[in-house]
Description:
There is one protein chain. The protein is α+β, with helices and mostly antiparallel strands and 234 residues long. It folds into 2 domains: 3-86, Phosphorylase Kinase, domain 1, CATH 3.30.200.20; 93-209, Transferase(Phosphotransferase), domain 1, CATH 1.10.510.10. It is built from 4 helices and 10 strands; from the N terminus they run ββββαββααββββα. A 6-stranded antiparallel sheet has the order 1-2-3-4-6-5, with helices on one face. The protein has a two-stranded antiparallel sheet with strand order 7-10. It has a two-stranded antiparallel ribbon with strand order 8-9.
Amino acid sequence: MERIGVYRVEGLLGVGSFATVWLAHDPMLDIRVAIKVLAENWHHDVRVRERFLDEARLLSRMEDDRLVRVRLVGELADGRPYIVLDWADGGSLRQRLAAGPLPVATALDTLAEIAAGVAVLHRHRVVHRDLSPGNILFRSTADGERVLIADLGLAKALAVASGLTMRVGTPGYMAPEQDDPLAVVDERTDVYALGRLGLRLLAPSPANTGPPANTGPPANTGPPANTGPPANTG
């Protein structure tokens, strides 16, 4: 893929269950962006397509510095939708943890920033449902770095956050109720994931952060490389 709309594709950032994320150049603004494209195998699934577009709608509605920002929503020639997002040039928390444990002070600051981002979602009555290191991104700012919450592809407004027909989330970070496709999920689902993230960031042994025995294969939509796979998406 050489172009997506007016954007020149520079490389692949990551591949998730429902989407592919590309690094691209915006010729008008002369900046790099991340473009999330619905996967071909889900192209004709109306429900998945709507879930994909819901991410853009939720992010646009909330627009906050702690969340990845949507710049544009478009459609490829084959009908697949795509979302143009700010590029998180600092990569993902998953990448940083893969390089080794963070200093305790840094880990605590990062966890506090993640919690602040989740609080933004909850103030808007939105539950993320897939908080994991791959969906926590870092973006350079004039005064340092900003922690961003990415990949709201599984997020739902709390008023309709039940009745799913497929198991979603990232093993090791999913709350027990996410194993039941008919269970109601609410803010407590994200609080559980925050606790798991805290263990991953602060536990002295990786054995303390392994996925619970009742979890299965991941259904992560986030990008692995830059986003971890973001969201970035991002």
